Amino acid sequence: MIVAGIFETVWATFMKLSNGFTNIFYSVLTIVGMLASFAGLITASKNLPLSIAYPVWTGIGAVGSILVGMFFFHEHLSLTTLFFACLLVVGIVGIKLTTH
Fold first, then answer.
1. Which of the four pLDDT bands, split at 50, 70 and 90, describes residue 27?
2. How would you class 54 by CB atoms within 10 Å of its CB: exposed for 0-12, middle for 13-18, buried for 19 or more?
3. Which spans in 1-100 are helix H?
4. Which residue in 1, 5, 19, 33 could disulfide with 11, CB within 3.0 to 4.6 Å?
5. Using one digit for the tens of pLDDT, what is the confidence trace for 5-15?
6. Which residues contact 36 (CB under 8 A, 6 or more apart)?
7. What is the pTM of this model?
8. CB neighbours of residue 49 within 10 Å
9. What's the number of CA atoms in the CB half-sphere (13 Å) around residue 71?
10. Given pLDDT bands bounded at 50, 70 and 90, which one contains residue 97?
11. Alpha-carbon distance 46 to 13, whole Å?
């Protein structure tokens, strides 16, 4: 699940770098990242309920994308936005910890 979530961040990052799919190199990497991310979600959903797998997958991707935006693209986020990103992390951990 973690690897699938990381690939969610990877493909989103490459999609930005593809400049609207005009850069073929990053466009191909975007598609490869998508396939890897979906493959990871498919694998995880064999052992986890969809109600757990999908939110954790998207949450990891969302938080990862926020971090990539901040550290690699130097995007400035308000304290309020960072607070809500922290709530995402708390939610992901909470969902995972309460799963049987």
1. very high
2. middle
3. 2-17, 24-47, 50-71, 79-97
4. 33
5. 999 999 999 99
6. 4, 7, 10, 11
7. 0.85
8. 10
9. 6
10. confident
11. 27
